[in-house]
Amino acid sequence: MDSSLIHLDRQYIWRPYTSTDNHQSVDPLIIQRAEGVWLTDAAGKRYIDGNGSWWTNTLGHAHPRLKQALQRQSEALMHCAFAGITHAPAVHLARELIHIAPPGMARVFFSDNGSTAVEVATKIAFQYWQQNGQPQRRHFIALTDAFHGDTLGSTSLGGIPAFRKVFGPLLFDLIRAPEPGDNGDYAEVIDAIIKELSSHGSRIAGIVIEPLLQGAAGMRMWPPTLLTALSHAAKQAETFLIADEVFTGYGRTGSMWACDHADITPDILCTAKAFSGGVLPMAATITTQRVFDGFSGGSDRAFMHGHTYYGNPLGAAVAREVLAVYRDERVVEQVNAKAPIIRAAFERIAQLPGVKSVRSLGMVGAADLGNAGYQGQIGWQVYQQALQMGAYLRPLGDTVYIAPPLVISQTELAQLLEILHAAIVAAYKNNPWSS
Ligand SMILES: *Cc1c(COP(=O)(O)O)cnc(C)c1O
Fold first, then answer.
1. Å from CA of 273 to ligand 1 middle
2. What spacing in Å lies between the alpha carbon of 246 and ligand 1's midpoint?
């Protein structure tokens, strides 16, 4: 049965981020069930979901309360247009989001994935300046190796060559901050942005960042003090700070939002991934009242953007229940007990031959095994070893990392970290190419 499913997959499916060669030559896992942190394949073998199903799953798979919320909502209303119509799941979700958003945030625009949450933020910022007397504010600033999603707008903001190279001619120009200095030091990066703001600030529509943690870049981390300084400089320049918290939000870094570590309120904040617990595509772009007010005063000033499924009631009901579970299970507080375990394990991993550097923040730990970045292959050797040992640990090229569900038990976490450690050892033992 398995082999026929793989055969049909090869015949009919076009997979994301997968070359045809890879599609034809590497068998995919067939996952049939998932519960808690465990994925179960067609043969009954279990794997710890080491990357939380692409960073979405913070509460574990098949959480009974999320299943109930989904079922309950499906009895009443599964979808309807969100123009000229409203419904309770969206309204209550928006109110609850504002309650936990950084202080001063006031309005919620729903969409359906992280890329569109950023796309919406970009278009809001651009339109705001066009219709509020500063049309010269047309330029965005983004970080080197940023990742903000795969729509054309978010690809423009993105800086990882593998994702943007071929589309270059289609993408909008922006101001790219310099690369972090030696040892991944972001001080020069933020310094350069602040200089740009003080000399050309009146041309800037917004600064788009992944606060404290650049995920797809290879889990690169930067300190809250720099985020505070950047927020201050954005205010001085009267431009918008746009925080893409699609990955960092919902406790991943040890507080609800990465922005909370720096005690800042961005002008626009994007959330997705854990926002709906990894259950349904659902996202939100949250703004301050100031931003929202820039769209009042006439029908030609409306924000002309919306996709068919925006505000979907099923997604909204699940996202509300996610917030309720966060409150009741004190999910973010749980991270404080587990983060030191991750840090200690990665400090041990740092001692292994072949490991160049390690870092951790909240429920993320990462180790660089080579210098080839996103196109590197060493991480894939670790991936294969880890699969055999019972963990799913999709790498970012040469960087291997964990980003498990936040509710992972300490026993399961220890198991995951042991597998990663052993998989790195095994990968180097089997491969004389180790540097
Ligand atoms: C994953 C990610 C996105 C894109 O989200 P999708 O739901 O995959 O469209 C945007 N920004 C960041 C920081 C991400 O990690």
1. 7
2. 6
Q: Which residue has the tokens 């040992």?
A: 389
**Are the C-beta atoms of residues 286 and 280 closer than 8 Å to each other?**
no
Phi, then psi, of 209 in degrees rounded to 5: -135, 155
Gap between the Cα atoms of 325 and 343, Å rounded: 26
User: Distance, CA 180 to ligand 1 centroid (Å)?
Assistant: 21
The values of phi and psi at residue 359, to 5°, are -160, 160
pLDDT digits 0-9 by tens, 197-228: 999 999 999 999 999 999 999 999 999 999 99
- Three-state SS for 205-248 is EEEEECCCEECCCCCEECCHHHHHHHHHHHHHCCCEEEEECCCC
Q: How far is CA 155 from the centre of its chain?
A: 14
Pair 354, 369: CB distance under 8 Å: yes
Cβ–ligand 1 distance for 114 under 6 Å, the answer yes
Q: Would you say residue 435 has pLDDT above 50?
A: no
Q: What's residue 1's pLDDT?
A: 52
End-to-end CA distance of the chain: 41
Outline where 159-206 has alpha helix (H): 161-164, 187-200
